[in-house]
Structure prediction request, 328 residues.
Amino acid sequence: MKKILVLHTGGTISMSATASGALQPNAENPLMAQDDLQGLFDHKLQLITEEIFNLPSPHMTPQRMLALRDRILRGEREEGIDGVVITHGTDTLEETAYFLDLTLPSTIPVVVTGAMRGANEIGSDGLYNFQSAVWTAYSDEARGKGVLVVMNDEVHTARFVTKTHTTNVATFRTPTFGPIGLISKHHVNFFQELIQQTVCDIDHVINGVYLLKAFAGMDGDLFSAVDLPTTHGIVIEALGAGNLPPETLPAIRQLLAHHIPIVLVSRCFNGIAEDVYDYAGGGVELKKMGIIFCRGLNGQKARIKLLVALSNGKQGDELRHYVNNAVS
Ligand code: ASP
Prediction:
């Protein structure tokens, strides 16, 4: 008998369409009533189901992510759970999944899923994705692989998966490496191993960590606007291989002079930001200025990593090393 903790948090998977087609939250997630999965698992499955939140995922916050982490830890330490399934809105799903990946010491499977269509819509994918997520959390092979995202018959790592389409059910992709597993009719099939990463233990989360996206003609105004005593860190989605318009540099120098850590990723959805170009605003100059290059993460995940690192009290070289490496 395996005990799986199911935590519903809201999102489209919990919503229904009105007569006009607008999606609205239900008073309770329709999946709360899903006890009929037992038969599929030969009655060797016990689901402990809770609606920890009922929120659209744009309402998710790092504080709520931490509450989710704490609930999972309690399940592991006091209730002997063998795996976790979290249902979540898809808009910020990758951020919650990555937050948990960085902060959970678990080796039990932790699987996050959602849906692109409401519970009563034609071709609704919620129940199917939920069932796939339970299969994955139940599988012995899912242990020790970090937090996983299961949608549309694919298993992705929280570390690299991203939402790529506004409405398509095949929205979750891992642009750099692809999924690490596929769900077939009767099995969860894994075909890649993950490099282990250290867990970052936190008991609170700080605010004031921002994400800014670079564009042609950008100047220093947005950077100056966040040059505040309440700002703890900034992630920049830079251009191409990791470059910025030179007009941004004076304001960025000011931020660095105020000891605000600045992390740089690329706004390209694929590839790694590096100090390749040696011209005004090029990566070589940005790195010399003290900007931390974060390798392989997208902007929203780099922001979660910076926020977690700062909440853990990391600074200086320790912060630089931790944020620089996608797998540290
Ligand atoms: N806006 C919804 C949410 O993130 C979309 C979804 O669940 O897919 O909650």
Observations:
- Residues 11-12, 56-57, 89-91, 114, 116 surround aspartic acid (CB under 6 Å).
- The radius of gyration is 21 Å.
- The chain has a mean pLDDT of 95.
- Residues 71 and 212 are 32 Å apart (CA to CA).
